[in-house]
Structure to design on (285 residues):
């Protein structure tokens, strides 16, 4: 079983999101459906105000960035950063205000001369290989008493859209995710999320629970949508299966979805955790 390699992982992330970003944006991020009903709530909970300078980490196609730009007015500024250039190109096309800037950079290596009043991160924290390094960077660029607001998906049980398929896939393709690879459910409970921010030195930590539903349609719709969205690195993994294994895996996924199926249609619960915390002092160095 291969072990997690942060460099290889980041390269794969870039390839994956460059390829997947257009569909992700059109089918998910730009629509007020499922977990993306949280976007407006994240910005509201962040208490961003007119004139603020804001950093949006792992901004993707810029859905949070866009809502922030409307809150800060002409006197404010928002910078969105992401490791993949593909999503950033999409973000630039529909974020055209002069107070918005996008930068392609690794969050672990980000550098800024300005300080930020607030920092946001929707559905990105769990994928950072070295979260403590990122949070130390955040404290370096966040003003004293500045606020960070982070949204993450719930656990396998409370946000089963991913786990219904991934649990089956890992049984048939054990090296699908090398040991130690960050997963979508990495901070899926309040305790896991709170501990990470306390460790990094943040104070006044509050965590809100948001509960949504996502309706992918029938099981076949769910299955087809998953395989339609597979990017090149993942497609190569599935080619290792023979037809018998593939059919068995599909049956296992179907079994996993039964508890969420009513009248032939799947209704997934989707818990989202939104954390806010305050930087008690600006770190130097």
């Amino acid at each position: 079983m291969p072990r997690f390699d942060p460099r290889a992982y980041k390269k794969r992330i870039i390839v994956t999101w460059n390829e997947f970003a257009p569909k992700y944006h059109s089918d998910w991020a730009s629509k007020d459906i499922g977990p993306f009903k949280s976007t407006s709530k994240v910005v509201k909970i962040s208490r961003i105000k007119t004139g603020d300078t804001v950093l949006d980490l792992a901004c993707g196609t810029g859905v949070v960035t866009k809502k922030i730009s409307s809150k800060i007015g002409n006197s404010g500024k928002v910078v969105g950063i992401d490791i993949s250039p593909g999503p950033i190109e999409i973000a630039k096309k529909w974020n055209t205000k002069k107070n918005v800037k996008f930068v392609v950079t690794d969050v672990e290596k980000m550098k800024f001369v300005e300080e930020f009043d607030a920092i946001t991160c929707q559905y990105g924290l769990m994928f950072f290989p070295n979260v403590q390094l990122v949070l130390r960077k955040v404290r370096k660029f966040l003003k004293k008493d500045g606020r960070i607001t982070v949204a993450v998906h719930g656990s396998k049980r409370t946000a089963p859209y991913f786990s219904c398929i991934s649990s089956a896939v890992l049984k048939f393709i054990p090296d699908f995710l090398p040991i130690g690879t960050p997963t979508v459910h990495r901070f899926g409970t309040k305790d896991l999320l709170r501990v990470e921010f306390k460790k990094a030195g943040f104070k006044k930590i509050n965590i809100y629970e948001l509960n949504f539903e996502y309706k992918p349609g029938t099981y076949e719709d769910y299955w087809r949508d998953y395989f339609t969205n597979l990017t090149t690195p993942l497609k190569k993994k599935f080619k290792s299966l023979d037809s018998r294994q593939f059919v068995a895996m599909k049956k296992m996924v179907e079994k996993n979805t039964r508890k969420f199926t009513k009248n032939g249609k799947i209704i997934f619960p989707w818990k989202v955790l939104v954390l806010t915390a305050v930087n008690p002092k600006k770190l130097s160095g």
Observations:
- The domain at 6-155+181-213+271-278 is CATH 3.40.50.150 (Rossmann fold).
- The beta strands are 53-56, 77-82, 100-104, 116-122, 142-153, 203-217, 261-262, 265-278.
- Residues 6-29 form the longest helix (24 residues).
- The two ends are 38 Å apart (CA to CA).
